[in-house]
């Protein structure tokens, strides 16, 4: 192991010592030496199996077979989750073959950020993660279950399922993916058409044609945004079967992996004699491994908050500085859009997860000796699944990249670091994704142009008022103000200005898309404007220094002048009403800061 990564891990272990001990005591007290339903009264149990068939009822009455919960984010509007429609029956039959039982314990909501970008519904996006965690908890709260399988893919869904899984850490848990859709038009072409539309060079029909050619089939979107970053993180933590993350949906291999994952959870229950609860399986080393893999691949900045949140659910305390310090130790090894032109299918074809595991393990960047759903050690994850004569087997992954422009080696990295910097200064602390930035765009010192809604920036762009060097300050987008919507709508606009030769950047207490691109964006700024952060005092024309090399984010205004200013007040202006937003006030008011996971489920 690389010395510096071990030191950071030890720092996290020490910081988490008390909270982790409390957590482990909690899950120990929740486990059962027999099946969990044995603690239910006859009336409880009768309700629990009333809808089952005769054979399943008999097995459940016997109190000697594991009952596995199925939690699913299926809906047929989301392309990534549409394949899950057929999974419950496949899972039930596979578990029945082991002598166990599976019951569909509950569905969770699943919203698509791609549909809600720039729309009022986006204000619910981050909060949906906490709703998913609570929905999962409701499903598991019946105490019928000895293990769980989680069906989820996209942005807030997997983090929500992970928070719930850690909360029910006494249960063995396996995550089952569905896989990416086939490649559509090249991502570079899609981005080009978006910028053409922003400049008025093509009409909506042309834009819709391009978008429809990109997002065009069942499966996960193929760019390396939050959804695919989620899958990578879950596999690196050992919650997927080896090589399962990016196998295409509706294929024989995908179905074989689903059946195998279903059977695997029964091998981890108390009844199996090989009890491995997920709360003990995932420890501080597993979390560090997740961060390392995210950084090595230039994954979604959204995971900076999500990892903090689900780690906290397991009693592990992570902060932005941990990401920053690990980024200095981990080189960038992949080029997947928006960090390059390839998509996740090209990554899979170039060697995929097995090759990534080999490169990281062979160079001491991952903790190998961790627990996984397949047992102790990550070496198993250097293998890839294949079908031989209709049987699922694992073979050694390739040793060399099939496309060095997509997956490279430690000695020839695309960047020397993991492409993530924490910026600090009088404005507060924020996150900057550097892996997609062009050379020469890491540092910008320019006057502020202040907005309190992303649509205001669109209006200024359309009016030709932004043809200059500037730092766009978009405030009152934080968790407590608006639920921290993504500001992906700004990416094409700022990209157009950057292409014209202007030096532009973004500073916001909101989020950017998991596919944050070439424009420097200091995001997740803490404290947020509504909490009295200095961003609430920025005025038009104030000079701001954003330095992605030194990690500086400074409002260059004399302290005496800042002390004399009155902070701007958030103009709700309908942002808390419509599209269901009025129902989420209690949650929005209780969201923590971005650096503590932007979560309403735990104390700050």
UniProtKB/TrEMBL annotation:
Residues 405-598 form the Dihydroxy-acid/6-phosphogluconate dehydratase C-terminal domain. [4Fe-4S] cluster binds at residues 154, 221. Transmembrane segments: none annotated. It is an enzyme of class 4 (lyase). Keywords: 4Fe-4S, Carbohydrate metabolism, Gluconate utilization, Iron, Iron-sulfur, Lyase, Magnesium, Metal-binding. One of its GO terms (molecular function) is 4 iron, 4 sulfur cluster binding. InterPro entries: 6-phosphgluc_deHydtase, Dihydro-acid_dehy_C, DiOHA_6PGluconate_deHydtase_CS, ILV_EDD_C, ILV_EDD_N, IlvD/EDD_N. One of its GO terms (cellular component) is cytosol. One of its GO terms (biological process) is Entner-Doudoroff pathway through 6-phosphogluconate. This is Phosphogluconate dehydratase. Its EC number is 4.2.1.12. It holds the Pfam family ILV_EDD_C. The keyword Protein biosynthesis does not apply. The lineage of its organism: Bacteria, Pseudomonadati, Pseudomonadota, Gammaproteobacteria, Alteromonadales. Residues 68-378 form the Dihydroxy-acid/6-phosphogluconate dehydratase N-terminal domain. PANTHER family: D-XYLONATE DEHYDRATASE, PHOSPHOGLUCONATE DEHYDRATASE. The keyword Translocase does not apply. Catalyzes the dehydration of 6-phospho-D-gluconate to 2-dehydro-3-deoxy-6-phospho-D-gluconate. Its cofactor is [4Fe-4S] cluster. Binds 1 [4Fe-4S] cluster. Belongs to the IlvD/Edd family. Pathway: Carbohydrate metabolism; Entner-Doudoroff pathway. It catalyses: 6-phospho-D-gluconate = 2-dehydro-3-deoxy-6-phospho-D-gluconate + H2O.
